[in-house]
Amino acid sequence: MNSAPRPNGKMVGAQAVSLRVSGDKSAFYNCKIIGFQDTLCDDRGNHFFKDCHIRGTVDFIFGSVTSLYLNSKIFVEGDPEGDLEMAIIIAQVRESSSEDKSYSFVHGRITGTSKDVFLGRAWKSSPRVVYSYTEMDEIVHPGGWSSNRQPERAETVYYGDYKCMGKGATPPFLVLDYVEGTKWLLPPPTVPK
């Protein structure tokens, strides 16, 4: 846990890391990692997190690594003063699609006291983040992801969510809305018996 005060979105250098992992083949079980901005610097190597609780406000899981988060709870802390511009869980650092780096969240839960939380943002040009079988509370922003005010990055990011559930989950590739089917598909004809 980092006891640094909550950043107000205006102070320079207000980020405060609670845990930095730079060793290869590091595993964490049943850990609580708590802070505000930049809580977990998941930096270099291959890492595994299981049954962990990670709490923060902005970019609170970040780094240039390949990590699997299994059955972990992500708690997004709300901003009582309303000073922070936005709440973002992930700022994954991958500079090109040739780099074998990514974050995978499986069978976890996203909850908290914040609103309109982005699952991740394109902090660098080619982030790769996937959420699978994750329960997402209504705190998740309907768009899910942020281009970090750089729309050209939409061509180079790899963001996905697969079979996620809850009020904040949107199953974009698994429903008729993917092809705007509710606007043009007709029900199948009934054949008389």
UniProtKB/TrEMBL annotation:
Pfam families of this UniProt entry? Answer: Pectinesterase
Indicate the residues that form the catalytic site: D59
Q: What is this protein called?
A: Pectinesterase
Its organism's taxonomic lineage begins at: Eukaryota, Viridiplantae, Streptophyta, Embryophyta, Tracheophyta
Q: Which UniProt keywords apply?
A: Aspartyl esterase, Hydrolase
PANTHER family xref list? ACYL-COA THIOESTER HYDROLASE YBHC-RELATED, PECTINESTERASE 63-RELATED
- Output the superkingdom of the source species: Eukaryota
Give the Enzyme Commission number.
Answer: 3.1.1.11
Root EC class:
hydrolase
Is the keyword Hydrolase assigned to this protein?
A: yes
MF GO annotations: pectinesterase activity
- Residue ranges of domain Pectinesterase catalytic in the record: 14-170
Similarity section: Belongs to the pectinesterase family.
What catalytic reaction does the record list?
Answer: [(1->4)-alpha-D-galacturonosyl methyl ester](n) + n H2O = [(1->4)-alpha-D-galacturonosyl](n) + n methanol + n H(+)
Q: What pathway does the UniProt record associate with this protein?
A: Glycan metabolism; pectin degradation; 2-dehydro-3-deoxy-D-gluconate from pectin: step 1/5
Please name the GO terms of the biological process aspect recorded for this protein, alphabetically. cell wall modification; pectin catabolic process
